[in-house]
Amino acid sequence: MKLLLKGGQVYDQGTFIPMDIEVTDGVITARGASIPTTEIDRVLDVSGLHVFPGFVDVHVHLREPGFSYKETIATGTRACARGGYTTVCAMPNLSPAPDSDEHLKQQEELIARDAVIRVLPYGTITLGQKGEGELTDMALLKDRVCGFSDDGRGVKEEATMRQAMENCKSVGSIIAAHCEDMSLIPQGGAIHDGAFAREHGIPGIPSSSEWAPIERDLRLVKDIGCRYHVCHVSAKESVELIRQAKAAGVNVTCETGPHYLLMCQDDLRDEGRFKMNPPLRDKADQEALIAGLLDGTIDMIATDHAPHSAEEKGRGLAKSAMGVVGIETAFPLLYTHLVKKGVITLGQLVEALTTAPRARFQLDGGLNLGDRAEITVFDLNAPGKVDPEDFLSMGKATPFDGWQVDAACRLTVCGERIAYENL
User: Fold this and answer.
1) 325, 341: one domain
2) How far from chain centre, in Å, is Cα 344?
3) 135 strand-pairing partners
4) pLDDT, position 418
5) Quick check: 58 and 176 in contact, CB under 8 A?
6) Disulfide check for 9: which of 16, 20, 204, 396 has CB 3.0–4.6 Å away?
7) Residues 257 and 122 in one domain
8) What percent of the chain clears pLDDT 70, i.e. is strictly above it?
9) β-strands 55-60, 85-90 pairing
10) Is the full-model pTM beyond 0.90?
11) Are residue 398 and residue 302 in the same domain, yes or no?
12) Domain limits at 344?
């Protein structure tokens, strides 16, 4: 099967070059001006559009097996493809959790049957993804997972995390840590411990519940030397701890989410679509995250796409489930509200969505000659508004409902498959 993407502006190290791209059996086999259309099975006219490497999200929740009323592999990956994503790493808070050969196989079978892009599962750190107790056999699962995480729960005991890091290092994998110390969070903690929480009588989540376990883990990583990645960084103290650790040579990377870069607690409303974990924090935290992205402390942007049912998200801030969706809106929002406003460059955004996650998680794919074809095509002059009723995801809870966007995905190619098309 031969595809030809013809006439696009192809992203190449921070600039755009007009060229055609040929894909043969899922591999980039030619790049250049005016590639002949002879012996091409399908020509895709992308003239006037911008061609990027397919985006990578190392932190998504696809909810299967176990929670298909929230999302399925089929709906979730179609939403990913519409957002320009060609590879995603699926978090393990599932039922059953992928903590054994038998349990992982259930997830793998669903992925093989229903995914329209590449989905790489995480294995759990602890059995049952409990954040404590017996550790998962990492050696058994290492070749079938992108890394190990107990996302949704922090690893409670230092000794447990130390052993997990040692095991992870021995098998050459990576730990993606959900850093949350529940002992520091009051009963019913729902949003950041700040002005909005006090004014509305909602128990607040202190920043220390995030940065204290990061501080612990960084000390362990410095001693052990395993590959370590911090999930969904939201607090200014966390950014500074990671900045200092990197300067000291600690083997750490981290991610933050679009909502933390574009919003803070000043934007909160008492609606479930504004409730996520960690929560939106102060303006100073938002500014620190942007500064961290600019100076390289924050390596990548991950959506933490976390769909729930309408009922679960319809109970206000205090009682709604934690988590918002974001895979379909990430690039359009970040491009419109950070790149076009001059906060970051387009090159910095593409690095955070493509090069950095591929390098850290040792993933192939892209749009260079010989790459496994992972390509997304955007119209960067497509004014519109975020409308959750238009989402392909089953989850509709987004804090960005009604926000202006100036970009839209037109095509996503993943290997031999056209995963999304709206040319």
Assistant:
1) yes
2) 19
3) 126
4) 98
5) yes
6) 16
7) yes
8) 100
9) parallel
10) yes
11) no
12) 54-360
